[in-house]
Every structure is written in C-alpha cells, then in structure tokens.
Amino acid sequence: MTPPEDPREARRADFLAAAGWGGVEAVPLAGDASARRYFRLQRADGARAVLMEAEAGEEVSRFLRVGRFLRDAGLSAPEVVASDAPNGLLLLEDFGDALVARIAEAEPEREAGLYAVAAEALAALHRHAPPADWPRATPAMLSRAIAPLFEHYAPETPPETRAATEEALAQALEGLDAPTAVPILRDFHAENLIWLPERAGSARAGLLDYQDAMAGHVAYDLASLLRDARRDVSPAAAEAAITAFLRESGRNRATLTAAMALLGVQRNLRILGVFARLAAHGKPRYLALMPRVWRHLEADLAHPAAAPVARALGEALPAPDPARLDRLRRRCPTP
C-alpha cells in the first residue's frame, strides 16, 4: 500500500508551483532553536531562493510586517518572493552563506570591521520609531521573562529568591532611560547576520530571524550581539562595535555600557532557562553553550548597575558545572 502523502509536502509543492519554483529540489538548511524549517532552492537558470516553513498564521504575518519595516528603514531584510501565511510558507531572497560568525572565525582579522557594521545597522534601525502595534519590552515584561531560569535550569531555587530576583531586576530596569523607545530585534547575533559586501553602509549586514521584534531599549540588541551565547567575541570586536554605535547614535558610553550590563543579565538569566528547556525537548547541544552564558552573566552581575540583582540572587543560582550539566543532560529524551 502506498503511504499517504505528507500534507506539508503537498502544500509545499503547490506553493512552489504557484510561485514558479515547481519541481526544484529543496535542500534543507541548518535550523535554529525554533520549530521553523529552511530549505534552499536553485533553479536551472541559476536563480536561488530560501523556503521558510513556520507555524501557520501570526508568526509568518509578523515576519512579513517586520521585514517590510526593516526594508523601509533602508536595512537588509530578505525580499519576499511569495508568501502563504495561512499555511506558514514563505519564499525569500537568498542572502547566501556568508554568516558573520563563520567569516569572523575563518578570518579573525575581519571580525572587528564586521561587528562595527552590525552596530551601525542597529544605530540606523534606532532612527525609526517602532510601530505602535509592536509589543513593548517593558521592565515588568523583561523581569517576568526570566521565568524559564527557575522552571527549567534551577527549579530548586527558593520561591523567595525567585521573587526577590524578579523584583530587583524590574526595579533596576525601571531606572533605565526610555526603556521602550526603539525597535529591537531580540535575537541579534553573528549567526543571524549575513555579510552582503555588494551593498553599502549598514545595509551590508543582512538580517535574519527578526519576527519577534519589539519596542525596547537601545542597548538590548547590542548586548545580544556582544554577549553571544554561541561564540566568543574578541575584545577588539566588542570595542569596535561599541565605538561605532556611539559614533552613529551620539549616546553616552557610561550610560550605554551600564544598560548593556543590566540587559545582559536579564538576557542570560533567561537564556540559561531556555537552553535547559530546549535540551529537555531533545536538543542537548544547547547544554554545551551554558558555560559561556554563565561567564557573560558573572561579568555583567559584577557591574554596579546590576548590583541589586546580584544581591537578590546571592549564592542561590548554581553554575553550569559538570554535575549540573549532567543532571540536565539526563532529562534529554535523546542521547
């Protein structure tokens, strides 16, 4: 008996045929922490595109809206070749394989320049007000967002420590100037940036994975870029990025770096929990990234701006030492 056709494959084939890409082989590309899937297509005439499959509905609609906003701002988000939001299908411009992370690893002498352009792209983005209907990364929302830390990474944390940490974080974030003034992309790092040397200025930074954009603080995405869970950013590259951002934005260095430290604490507390959850759901590779996340967290907790959060946490939060990682690994459904 012939097995029934996968409905996803049938929808994909119909979508590609209607877009003029029927019969083209779809080669899987590396995915990310989400359930989205990506495929590269290349026609006989040499034209290339990327197919994105996502959860049907709002996620795709948001990707389309945010991408349009970014392109209107003069930044490089992939053009949309065809879309079927109800079925979670997008055919996108192919930016190629020149990930900033790969280039920086292969040619470390170029890292500082690449990171400077990425920071320039952020400064250019911040010249545009976030749309009124974008979610707001308020201090209350950001403090609640560290919940995965206590649910998945350190569930043994006393309830009073959890409450005190969230309260201290919210109060510290309230002290930041204009906490929701600019667009933030939230997952802004070297593996979500494609180098496009044929373009000019900040448009040389090709942007990916921006559907979760919000209105937030100017330092948020810079903290995401420089406190990267996936790779070590050299001091020279970090300084090049900060210098470029300050030059393009006119911000104050001390104020910016204090905000980066505090937002770095928020991000990395959350990331520890998210990575533990991903591991428990069959993605144990994220456990190997935890020691780097911890180093970022320790460095930022030492900044005076994060002192209230450090006091609230005290000694309650365990490091991702071999015993902790082994415990988390044992929860993984796959080896």
Automatic annotation (TrEMBL):
Gene3D superfamilies: 3.90.1200.10, Phosphorylase Kinase, domain 1 (3.30.200.20). Keywords: Transferase. Pfam families: APH. Residues 26-249 form the Aminoglycoside phosphotransferase domain. GO terms for molecular function: transferase activity. It comes from the Bacteria. This is Aminoglycoside phosphotransferase. The lineage of its organism: Bacteria, Pseudomonadati, Pseudomonadota, Alphaproteobacteria, Rhodobacterales.
